[in-house]
Amino acid sequence: MATVESKYIQQHLANERTYLAWIRTAIAIGGVGFLVTNLHFNPASEVSDWADKIVTAIGYLSIVLGIFTLIFSTISYLRKRKQINEQTFESSHVIVVFLTVCMILVFLTFFAYLLLR
């Protein structure tokens, strides 16, 4: 028996692939935080207190940004699923702009770490 979703199989599959790409992105963003923190805080390195604080901020920012990416991508996936079924699809730009601004902040913080190191 055909369902509403079966009429738009290709669109739903593309929506799922996009969602999985956002999940991979969230994992990578969180991983950057762990990587930077682990590379900085090792027994062989002694750096300034400022560098310690910046690296800690990078770690926290990356993890929080990864969590927000998971939340917003899930909301976006569900919204798009509904819009595809209702044929009212509108592309969303909010999540892209938000994540771009957040990643710029993470990169600027990392740049500050490199300058103070």
Low-confidence stretches: none
Tally of DSSP helical segments: 3
Largest sheet data:
none
Helix content: over 70%
Structure class: mainly alpha
Q: What's the number of domains?
A: 1
Radius of gyration: 19 Å
- Order of helix and strand elements from N to C terminus: HHH
Distance between the termini: 64 Å
Please, what is the average pLDDT? 85
Strand content: under 5%
Q: How many strand elements?
A: 0
Gross morphology is elongated
Please explain how this structure is put together.
There is one protein chain. By secondary structure, this protein is an all-alpha fold. The protein has one domain. The protein has helices at residues 9-40, 49-86, 94-116. Helix 1 runs antiparallel to helix 2 (49-86) and helix 2 packs antiparallel against helix 3. The radius of gyration is 19 Å and the shape is elongated.
The gist of it:
The chain has helices spanning 9-40, 49-86, 94-116. With 117 residues, it is mainly alpha-helical. The longest helix is centred in the middle third of the chain and has 38 residues, at 49-86.
Keywords summarizing the entry:
single chain, 117 residues, mainly alpha, 79% helix, transmembrane helix, DUF202, membrane, cell membrane, IM_YidH-like
